[in-house]
Design a protein that fits this description.
The protein is α+β, with helices and mostly antiparallel strands. The chain has 18 helices and five strands. The longest helix is centred in the N-terminal third of the chain and has 35 residues, at about 5-40.
């Protein structure tokens, strides 16, 4: 048995996403839990980290539901990235608490507070720039992200001191991780290091220069190949029209609407004769326009009179009333009211914004190369518009991608100003690694020949928020062991939480995870 239809593809995509998120979520959760147990020897630190993140997500979701009518799926996908940022607050607090001497734990965690707020400020600036983009979806994402981070940070500062219970204990593993920064290679301005950095920069710039972009909605298609083939086979057998490409026809009244359909159908008939398309479906195939009905009546009138006269002569009648048809033309309203119109009623859209509108469908589309010629058939026809929903969505994705790139650039500028105010001449130490990581991602995509898309840019924005936090914590704590431990644990947790998305069969999630990996 073959199956087809939008619900089938939607169900398959939902099942695949649910299965992947379950596997990835369980795997990441187990990995994070095991790491926290190995580093702090207790279950409570892990619960505190998850609790602070959960508070942030609940507060963000509740706020968005209060402000907006609904929460978009893209907001939830992007909002899930808060886990990678918000968890750092609790991890750094626990690391500082575990490694500080017994008499200095309170002062150590108090000294950590300015760094936490600054890390929040840099992340919030990046997300705040989303609100400046001319897209309602981005404004919702900005609100979700900022409110979520506020909720997570406040829960760390207010609740963790009261819920921590017994102080977290540093294990042998956490001690080794905390001291590992001493063995991290130092970059010095030697001739060899300068040449090496210049070579790496040249490779990265060349890779980024090869980068192109793609916003095709088809690239995000994740339906199983078997379902796609079944859809194509059923569409071929039943001559089903394309549900996403069609002509939209409008007119001041039904007569003008049908006349404009007929002008379009004349052009489409030529394509059918060429076997370029399989056929078309239009209201005017069943209800000719009044002008066409009158023309047909005038053309048939002489033949009707002659036929009637011949019949009368054969029957021996004295005279014949050979008047033309006196019935009024068939109207669209009368036809729509009849049961015969039931299969085609969806083609009639009714009166919208003062004009009557209908749809003319085309079937037999097998390749995207056919679309430009079909679009050209509407040229010069008043009230006829070619609609390609896939292209419309692709243009929307392109608008989002460009807006997000502008947001990313604005975020970098705002964060640079904030870091310059706080650290003066040391601000580059925070920002340079982040910019290098972004350039590395773009170069890697360029060398692989993978086009840049919206979800790559979303990943770069999340990367900006997380990577800046690492530099801030190091500068605030003057490269202390607890700061390094928090960075290592946060980075590992982020890799587990989002790096696994790189292996997703859903293209959007894979692009997002690959960027963060």
């Amino acid at each position: 048995m073959l199956t087809a239809g939008v619900p089938v593809h939607a169900a398959a995509a939902a099942l695949q996403a649910q299965r992947e998120m379950s596997v990835i979520g369980v795997g990441a959760g187990l990995g994070i839990g095991l790491l926290m147990l190995l580093c702090f020897r207790r279950l409570r630190p892990m619960l505190l980290v998850l609790g602070s993140v959960g508070v942030g997500l609940v507060v963000a979701l509740s706020t968005c539901l209060l402000v907006f009518d609904r929460v978009h799926l893209l907001t939830l996908v992007f909002g899930a990235s808060l886990v990678g940022v918000a968890e750092d607050y609790a991890i750094h607090w626990l690391s500082a608490r575990a490694l500080a001497p017994a008499g200095e734990r309170e002062s150590t965690t108090r000294a950590l507070t300015p760094g936490l707020w600054l890390a929040f400020a840099t992340s919030a600036l990046g997300y705040l720039a989303l609100a400046l983009a001319p897209f309602p979806g981005l404004k919702q994402m900005a609100l979700f992200s900022i409110v979520g981070l506020v909720g997570a940070l406040i829960s760390v500062l207010l609740w963790l001191p009261r819920l921590v219970g017994r102080e977290p204990v540093a294990t042998a593993l956490s001690g080794k991780l905390a001291r590992s920064w001493r063995y991290w290679p130092r970059l010095r301005a030697t001739p060899l290091s300068v040449v090496l950095c210049a070579a790496l920069l040249a490779v990265a710039v060349c890779g980024a220069a090869r980068l192109n972009s793609s916003d095709e909605l088809r690239a995000l298609q994740s339906s199983p190949r078997s379902l796609v083939e079944q859809q194509q086979q059923i569409g071929h057998w039943l001559a089903e029209p394309s549900p996403v490409q069609f002509y939209l026809v409008s007119g001041a009244d039904h007569g003008e609407l049908l006349a404009r359909e007929e002008a379009l159908v004349q052009r489409l008939d030529l394509l059918v004769d060429e076997h370029f398309i399989g056929g078309h479906r239009a209201l005017s195939d069943w209800v000719p326009s009044p002008a066409r009905q009158m023309a047909d009546r005038a053309m048939a009138a002489p033949a009707r009179v002659a036929a009637s006269s011949a019949i009368v002569r054969e029957l021996g009648a004295a005279q014949v009333n050979a008047r033309p048809f006196e019935e009024p033309p068939l109207t669209l309203d009368r036809w729509l009211a009849s049961p015969h119109s039931l299969p085609l009623r969806p083609l009639y859209l009714g009166q919208i914004d003062g004009e009557y509108q209908s749809v003319v469908q085309v079937h037999g589309l097998t390749a995207a190369a056919q679309l430009p010629r079909l679009q050209a058939q509407a040229d010069g026809l008043a009230g006829v518009q070619w609609v390609d929903r896939i292209s419309d969505y692709s243009r929307l994705l392109r608008g989002y991608r460009i807006a997000m790139l502008q947001v990313l650039a604005a975020s970098v500028a705002l964060i640079a100003v904030l870091l310059g105010w706080r650290y003066r001449g040391q601000a580059w130490r925070v920002l340079l690694p982040t910019l290098a990581a972004m350039l590395a991602v773009l170069a890697w995509l360029g060398w692989r020949g993978e086009p840049l898309q919206l979800f790559h840019v979303l990943g770069l924005i999340v990367l900006l928020g997380m990577a800046d936090d690492y530099g801030i914590f190091l500068l605030e704590a003057e490269v202390s062991e607890h700061a390094w431990l928090g960075i290592v644990l946060g980075a590992v947790n982020t890799l587990l939480a989002f790096g696994l998305l790189a292996f997703s069969g859903t293209p959007a999630l894979a692009a997002f995870g690959l960027t963060l990996l």
